[in-house]
């Protein structure tokens, strides 16, 4: 049986792609305009054609000549207009042009299905204006569209990460979103089999030395030779002094006055709870003052590999480039396990 072909627009490092691959889909091509992130995508998806170009400069009809019979288009276009008010908002506004490019791609390739992912605000900003504009844009192309916010923690990802999804089908059926699972995955179940390294420590590759103690660890270790991207930030002396003052399960509320910074971020200088889940992993998870990113028991922030585990990336997925780029790759990704749930509903509908 032929695999369904997927196109990943605004691909990042490929979180959506990974979810679809895990359900047997094939990624025909991906577009990611940030060169070093596109390079990382390519190294992890060697069979996929990757275009490291700005989608607004790409002739989609020429791409269609090269890549025929696309079954699914996925992607998370950026949008700048969510905070705007007034009647002149439009999906055709230049600030929101990338949404239009996604709809244009669907118009050109006419896939059987599409998945558009974005921040939850896309459904509510300006009294739902963008939601209606996006749905109307797809309905005019003949798609039946459903939209909903999903939380990754409801699907086995150890992280409170909410994302909005628009899913559409061309066969006339309304795709129902997956139902939340009962069991949550904890931080302990996600990362405690990784080496307990201190601030400033790490190396290119670690053998697995600890046994797995959760199904989640077993799943993410599958087909991996070991542990990559596990370098701990070399925190400053003052940062280490502060971290040493924060016991397990606590945060900056226990710090003496002279150590309390004025950070605006929730969870700053607070430890992750080993039996809880993480807050949303952002692109600055190496800094205690940027949010809830401090290890539950070690005096340091998360490594790229620990953050990737919390995002549900397999250990066999390696992040390339500078540390800043790697953090961006991890922090901006759709959790593959959440993407897998979306891929499942599409596959089930296709196989009806």
From TrEMBL:
One of its GO terms (biological process) is methylation. GO terms for molecular function: methyltransferase activity. Its EC number is 2.1.1.37. It catalyses: a 2'-deoxycytidine in DNA + S-adenosyl-L-methionine = a 5-methyl-2'-deoxycytidine in DNA + S-adenosyl-L-homocysteine + H(+). It comes from Cellulophaga geojensis KL-A. Keywords: Methyltransferase, Restriction system, S-adenosyl-L-methionine, Transferase. Belongs to the class I-like SAM-binding methyltransferase superfamily. C5-methyltransferase family. PROSITE patterns: C5_MTASE_1, C5_MTASE_2, SAM_MT_C5. Signal peptide: none annotated. This is Cytosine-specific methyltransferase. The keyword Methyltransferase applies. Gene3D superfamilies: DNA Methylase, subunit A, domain 2, Vaccinia Virus protein VP39. The keyword Acetylation does not apply. It comes from the Bacteria. It is an enzyme of class 2 (transferase). The active site is at 79.
């Amino acid at each position: 049986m032929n695999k369904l072909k997927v196109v990943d627009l605004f691909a990042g490092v490929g979180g959506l792609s990974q979810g679809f691959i895990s359900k047997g889909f094939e990624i025909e091509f991906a577009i990611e305009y940030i060169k070093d992130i596109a390079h990382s995508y390519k190294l992890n998806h060697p069979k996929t054609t990757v275009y490291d170009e700005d989608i607004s400069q790409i002739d989609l009809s020429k791409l269609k000549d090269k890549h025929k019979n696309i079954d699914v288009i996925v992607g998370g276009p950026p949008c700048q207009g969510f905070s705007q008010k007034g009647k002149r908002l439009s999906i055709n506004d230049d600030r929101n042009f990338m949404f239009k490019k996604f709809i244009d791609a669907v118009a050109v390739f006419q896939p059987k299905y599409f998945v558009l992912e974005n921040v939850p605000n896309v459904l509510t900003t300006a009294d739902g204006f963008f939601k209606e504009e996006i749905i109307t844009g797809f309905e005019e192309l003949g798609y039946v569209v459903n939209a909903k916010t999903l939380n990754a923690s409801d699907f086995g990802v150890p992280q409170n990460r909410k994302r909005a999804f628009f899913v559409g089908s061309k066969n006339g059926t309304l795709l129902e979103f997956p139902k939340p699972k009962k069991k949550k995955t904890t931080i302990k179940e996600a990362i405690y089999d990784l080496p307990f390294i201190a601030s400033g420590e790490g190396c290119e590759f670690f053998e697995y030395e600890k046994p797995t103690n959760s199904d989640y660890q077993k799943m993410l270790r599958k087909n991996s030779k070991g542990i990559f991207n596990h370098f701990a930030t070399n925190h400053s002396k003052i940062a280490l002094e502060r971290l040493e003052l924060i016991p397990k399960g606590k945060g900056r509320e226990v710090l003496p006055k002279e150590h309390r910074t004025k950070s605006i971020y929730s969870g700053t200088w607070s430890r992750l709870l080993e039996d809880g889940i993480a807050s949303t992993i952002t692109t600055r998870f190496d800094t205690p003052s940027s949010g809830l990113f401090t290890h539950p028991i070690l005096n340091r922030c998360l490594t790229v590999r620990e953050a990737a585990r919390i995002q549900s990336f397999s250990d066999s997925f390696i992040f390339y480039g500078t540390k800043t780029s790697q953090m961006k790759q991890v922090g901006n990704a759709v959790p593959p396990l959440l993407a897998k749930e979306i891929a499942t509903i599409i596959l089930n509908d296709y196989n009806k």
